[in-house]
């Protein structure tokens, strides 16, 4: 079969995707060439199309049948050879064909693409769960089937040995109601606002109608990036605190002028909640902890030089002052000392004194 014939056949079969909607070879022939207004395609055209669909409805060693087949009983008129008049109606079995989307994917998805789909699916599934528009479970099933081909043996080994897990201590992921994320996605698709029932960490709860601008997975949870009405201020909602959500059909989704999700993530330092202007950080770091700052620097412009103290180094970097800065520095225990800025040094001292008090 030539490529142009295949593409034309797939185009005709496009709307016919299941046993609930199928098409016969004769009807394909009528759509193949519009020269048949009387509904009588040429026998040669019908034979060629029958040959095409027979090929595509037959599985091979590595590929399933591209087309599904359903044999239907239809009534046809029979004319006696000695008469020009139509005779009686009889039932006849006629094959009807359809194009299952999953079979189409299996045919045209390459093994490396299937592997990438499985690996990236780990991240999507962990963060967003079973959103119907993403069909993550179906995609994983299809990818597994593509990787089951004989020539994918090497890639199957990779798929069996690659996992992606979130950073952190290993705590359980936050529990987010599946409906909440699904309704937010539905609102984005419909270009509508979303109404969420939300409880703050202090216990204040209530309904908020917001413009859903994006979903961002971070640190074991998912944040809704949103704005309210025509206010350009962007707010981050941790979705484990949302108990319910519905598409606010009365309100259009308004995106602030110039908003770009990737730019917002970068400007907020990965949604780190800045509490002040950038700081010129100077640390003394012991050799025991130095690898943390070498392997994952604060910034590309970070500098590390030898300290005057043996086994210590001096680190300098301009970084955002966020709510996570003091907890991170505290996690380095006695192996890090803040030299400047002075307000950060004093805040560290206050927090550490309170910590020590718990153990005195």
Kindly describe this structure:
With 360 residues, the protein is of the alpha+beta class. The chain is built from twelve helices and twelve strands. It has four domains: 100 residues; 53 residues, no CATH class; 90 residues, SH3 type barrels, CATH 2.30.30; 85 residues, Alpha-Beta Plaits. Strands 7-6-5-4-8 form a five-stranded antiparallel beta sheet, with helices on one face. A four-stranded antiparallel beta sheet has the order 10-11-9-12. The chain has a three-stranded antiparallel beta sheet with strand order 1-3-2. A hairpin with a 7-residue loop joins strand 6 and strand 7. The model has no long low-confidence stretch (mean pLDDT 85).
Write a concise synopsis of the structure shown.
With 360 residues, the protein is α+β, with helices and mostly antiparallel strands. It contains twelve helices and twelve strands.
**Helix count, per DSSP?**
12
Largest sheet descriptor: 5 strands, antiparallel
What's the average pLDDT? Answer: 85
Radius of gyration: 31 Å
H-E string: HEHHEEHHHHHEEEEEHEHEEHEH
Give the strand content: 25-35%
Uncertain stretches of 5 or more adjacent residues: none
User: Which strands sit side by side, in order, in the main sheet?
Assistant: 7-6-5-4-8
Helix content: 25-40%
The tally of beta strands, per DSSP, is 12
- Count of domains: 4
First-last Cα distance? 83 Å
Structural class: alpha+beta
Shape: elongated
